[in-house]
Design a protein that fits this description.
single chain, mainly alpha, Gly_transporter, membrane
Length: 213
């Protein structure tokens, strides 16, 4: 099996659920920008698989996930197109998709950390790999939609990914049970993200109103 999915079948199942959810939320973003169906499909694929692709290119880790598993392109593209058919009902599912997005963030983070660990890279690179995997797809989506990426806003998103990655690496460094460490890291990261959404927690903002000249 590809190194990305060495952990457990549960992690792989969560990964599939997460990429479907990411593709569907990306389709809604495409709809707000009045993209055609091809644009909807492409944005769904880029958002769902872009973080892992960027990670693999930066770490020279081949083949890319969607190259090794072309079915993921069909899955994410199909999910994006399916969203067009059910778009009128999507507002009723907002909370579910916020939850699935949070799940995707922590799952992608752990998967990204696993890839860097398998390449025996330094801890700081492992954490960065997790964050890129978790966050870069959303950045690509926002850039393609001409929006300020969520990663660069004050709310806790990248922070959650870093927190999850550090917990995961820390537990592994102590030789704790792998599945237990993975569960603790993902559940803790998920709880932090959901609490941040519930209570509006955010990082301090930098506001500069002066001249640079």
């Amino acid at each position: 099996m590809n190194a990305t999915f060495e952990a457990t079948s549960l992690l792989h199942t969560l990964f599939v659920i997460a990429i479907i959810a990411e593709a569907m939320t990306a389709a809604l973003a495409a709809g707000k920008r009045e993209m055609d169906w091809i644009g909807v499909c492409l944005l769904g694929c880029v958002t769902a698989l872009g973080g892992g692709s960027m990670r693999d290119v930066l770490l020279d880790h081949h083949p890319l996930t969607w190259v090794a598993h072309p079915s993921y392109l069909l899955l994410t593209g199909g999910a994006a197109l399916f969203t067009i058919a059910i778009a009128r009902y999507m507002h009723k599912l907002r909370n579910i998709f916020l939850f699935l997005d949070a799940v995707g963030l922590v799952v992608f983070t752990v998967i990204g950390c696993n890839v860097a660990i398998s390449l025996e890279l330094p801890v700081v690179v492992v954490v960065a790999s997790g964050m890129i995997t978790g966050c870069a797809g959303g950045v690509l989506r926002d850039l393609l939609c001409n929006s300020i990426p969520l990663l660069f806003r004050a709310e806790l998103y990248a922070t959650v990914s870093i927190f999850t990655g550090l917990l995961y690496i820390g537990g592994l460094s102590l030789d704790w049970n792998h599945d237990g460490v993975m569960a603790i890291a993902m559940c803790s990261g998920l709880a932090l993200r959901l609490l941040a959404l519930r209570y509006g927690w955010s990082m301090p903002k930098f506001i500069y109103g002066g001249s640079i000249h």
